[in-house]
Amino acid sequence: MMHASIGTTCGFLLAMSSGARGQSDWSLVAPRSNTLPKGEPPASFDRRENIISPLGVSSSLDARPALLHTNKFYANLLLDSSSRAAWALPYILTINEEYPFGLYVSYPRFFEGERQDDRLKWYATTTGKDIILSAQELRTNQEAELTDFDDEGFSATVKFSSQDTAGGSMTTYIVRGMAYATVLYEDFTPEMATQHAILRVNGNAAAGGVHTNSRGRFMLELNDGSTWIVYSSNRELELSYVPATSDTPSSLRAKSPMTGTLRATRVPYESDSAEYDEAMGALDEHAGCYPIKGELQAWMDTKSTNRGRYKISWTTGGDDSGLLHFALPHHQGMLETSKVARTGLYVSSPTKGNMELVIGKIWEVNENDLPDFEWVPSKSRITSNVEREWIEYYLEEEISVPLDNVAGSSVYFGGKNLMAYAQLCLVADEIGRDDLVGPCVDQVEAGFDMYLMHSNGNPLVYDKIWGGVIGGLGLEEDSRAADFYASYYNDHHFHYSYVINAAAVLAHLRPSWATSDNVAWVNTLIRDVNDPNKYDAFFPQFRSFDWFSGHSWARGLLFAFDGKDQESTSEDVNFFYAMTMWAIATGNTALEGLGRLQTGVVKRSINEYFLLKDSNTNHPADFVKNKVTGIFFESKVDYTTWFGANVEYIHGIQNIPVTPITEYVRDPQFVSEEWNQRLQSVVGGAEGSWNTVLYMSYATIEKHLAFKEMITSGVDDGLQRAWALYWAATRPDCATFCAHSDANLDRAPEPTPTLLPAVPTPTPTPVMPVPTATAGAFTCDGVERNNFCCSSGCRQCGGSNCSKQEQIGLTGEDCCQNRITASGRLCSVTQEAPCYMDAPSSSAWVAPASSAYGGIPAVIPGMVQAEKFDHGGEGVSYSDTTPGNSGGVFRPNEDVDISGGHDDYHVAWIRATEFLRYTVNVEKAASAFDFTFQVATIPSYHDSGSFRVVTGGTGCDDYTTDLSGLVVVPSTGGWGTFASLPVRTDWKKVLTSQRWGANMLTTSGGQDPANSCATQSPSSKLAARGATTSQPTLAGS
């Protein structure tokens, strides 16, 4: 087979042809400067500076730091990390921070991980120093700076220089899909090295002296069996072999400086393969044309909302031999062949299957099967009157419950609750229950107001360093992990998709809500994640979405050896669905077109790389048996989740939230294979509410059977049962994989008349007495401070009144301790009031005492639920080192971090020095108790989680009796994987180290009844037999 060629040149961009249809039929959706606002974000977003600053950036880019990308393949280059790597694909390029300096080029090698049954649970690809492109001027030191990048995230340019030389440099263009690693030398002396031994150069022994080639072509045979070719634009280059020493690798050194390029590529085939000669010919022919960056353009068909296309134009340098480049599997069958020639030559990518060499610098991809968008599936699909009765029964029940749990310290969990309630409003509207629509929308609007007014526990702010919207809580020293490291730009498309979806529903069902201010606020979230404007001075273009990979990346500025990663493809899709519905509701046709196109692109890539049908060839066959990928890195794929390895977690996270777009992405064939091979055997024992998520998928092929199961299966705050049932009842027929067998359903009970929830009225902030105030500012130890309100982050102030901890730097008690207002509102992160150390002479101040949760002490022996700690507030019934409730559920207005939902709550994110206090009724005298603790942690925190149960005292370092001894929490495999930890000991629960979770503790009397409990002082915190005032404490040091 001859390798293909195409008549392209390397020095200019070819004009785009629109084919048979006229150019006027297409509307540009990216880049576009008027789709969204381009000025400063609304003033309601406070301006803050991130605690992370970009490193290694040229001073020439300082004028536009807000345009640096956080989630692209090269972001490690901007971080203070041990491995500054960029995943160009298939090659991985690394800038080394120690000798030998220069650019490391690695072709990844596959290796298997753990197996279970006949399935491969994970696999990864190694990186190494296959080829090191360097210069003799860099032998003692180097300065490597990012000097340029394209706005869409296709490329990054890095320049190397030395402190020891006044001039000269080497520059590398790191470009997605590059077929060669390219270094441009400017008066620098080339040097090449490798971690392997160089055996031969152009067929001659490497140690045989000076190597030259009239074509500037050097074939290197290495002792790992690989062959690399290095092409020099300087045909007179002479390379001398230098053998390895104990601390330096073998190398090839030029005799003198040069100006020109070196390009290195690995030969993709063995010499005895049929494709070898063709591959060598292609590599030789196109070695003179190199990519520098890429530029994106995207269009929607103005006459059909189901057709769109995008184009990547590669800017090139060098000669006119034509650009040879690698395309991913989701590109290969879609590239417009009039612009690009396919060669049929392949190499393996790290985790995305085989990449194909193609020739041409204009990549045009047509997407001709874009989805229709709808608010809810049509009620006409419901074929059972009994199913409709059940939907209405739960719709009335769930709308009668006030919407809460949206104002905690987690935008993610709060947004999920908000969107889930908004879906109820859509169902009510679709089935004609106008009596429910208004009250439902009232609740959503009131919940959304907490975000608009930035009165939730983690108010969104504008980050001036990186140019983005982040939760302010993550900027606090002790709260950097808040909301899954969202301040590091993790998961923004996940989190904001729920909030944008709820906003779209509001704008749809209550158009008057979509005021200019509200629209601007929501558009700011879209600008943060998916700004199509490459000229926006305040946000980068397409932060999360990778147009080369065809999907988003969830990891932001957290370093990872395996590169960027993404876990939940369904939440990725939800962002584009939410953005598109928002655009429809607000009449933004350009944004709507962009959303439609991106949904089509992401659907294609998800079905290539993440949702694995039996026919999938992009992963090892034994890994395909898992049916979904789990955590997908650039260099590793791991069948697990960040929160546990349960099968229901791994598959469920790929199916939340369920929206009308879900059926477009997850087709019946995949659902059938996934159910039969992985889910059917685990759904009955699935934890918590995950079984409902699995049944929602099953409804695609058996809607009536799934519906029957979901009447009683578990749900959590991020999913309403009425929506789950409505989804199941509206599944369409399909010819091959759907059965939709009949199920015998009992009639739904008659709904109990209930009052619909009243819209909560914001409570005015109480006015506190101000003992010392000057010109609107408080003083702290004689130093004037801003008049901040008190939050749980305002601690250790040490003065008579205080502002933020970081502005004071003093030590002392919590400035909010033991203080509530006359109206009973605690001074907390969501209900704020000025802070005082000493109670002023006013009857408005009272000090709360610790009291049993709900007024009913837990009975000992018996079970104590971890989340049902005493009432009393910070410093009294608990001590928590991070402000707000990170999970945002169960007790959202207190600072203890609680996760879970619907009777399956647990205390999470536990850190050192924290404690929880419980009032219990000890009904049996014993000198010893048998404890069983339900605990969870992940392997990386193994041996770091520990606690004690104690009585008496006020906290971790002040207690009377240690009843349990030090209890070490073993790794349980995931945050949501709880294990029973039995301890037989004497009796306060003290958390001595951090990052674990507690669900419950169970006690039973020991075998040796004694008077030790009875003889302790009745004031002890867990002492007097039968005393309802006794209080054990769960705490940490």
Automatic annotation (TrEMBL):
Catalytic activity reported: Hydrolysis of (1->3)-beta-D-glucosidic linkages in (1->3)-beta-D-glucans
InterPro entries hit by this protein: Endo-beta-glucanase (IPR005200), Galactose-bd-like_sf (IPR008979), GH81_C (IPR040720), GH81_N (IPR040451)
Cited PANTHER family: ENDO-1,3(4)-BETA-GLUCANASE 1 (PTHR31983), GLUCAN ENDO-1,3-BETA-D-GLUCOSIDASE 2 (PTHR31983:SF0)
Classification via CDD domains: CBM6_cellulase-like (cd04080)
Domain Glycosyl hydrolase family 81 N-terminal: residue ranges: 64-377
Species of provenance: Ectocarpus siliculosus (Brown alga)
A single MF term (Gene Ontology): glucan endo-1,3-beta-D-glucosidase activity
Secretion signal, residue range per the UniProt entry: 1-22
Keyword field contains Ubl conjugation: no
EC number: 3.2.1.39
The Glycosyl hydrolase family 81 C-terminal domain, residue ranges: 389-725
Protein name: glucan endo-1,3-beta-D-glucosidase
Family per record: Belongs to the glycosyl hydrolase 81 family.
Compositional bias per record (Polar residues), positions renumbered to this chain: 1000-1020, 1027-1037
Enzymatic class: hydrolase
Chain residue ranges for the region called Disordered: 1000-1037
Domain of life of the organism encoding this protein: Eukaryota
Pfam families: Glyco_hydro81C, Glyco_hydro_81
GO biological process: cell wall organization; polysaccharide catabolic process
Key words, A-Z: Carbohydrate metabolism, Cell wall biogenesis/degradation, Glycosidase, Hydrolase, Polysaccharide degradation, Signal
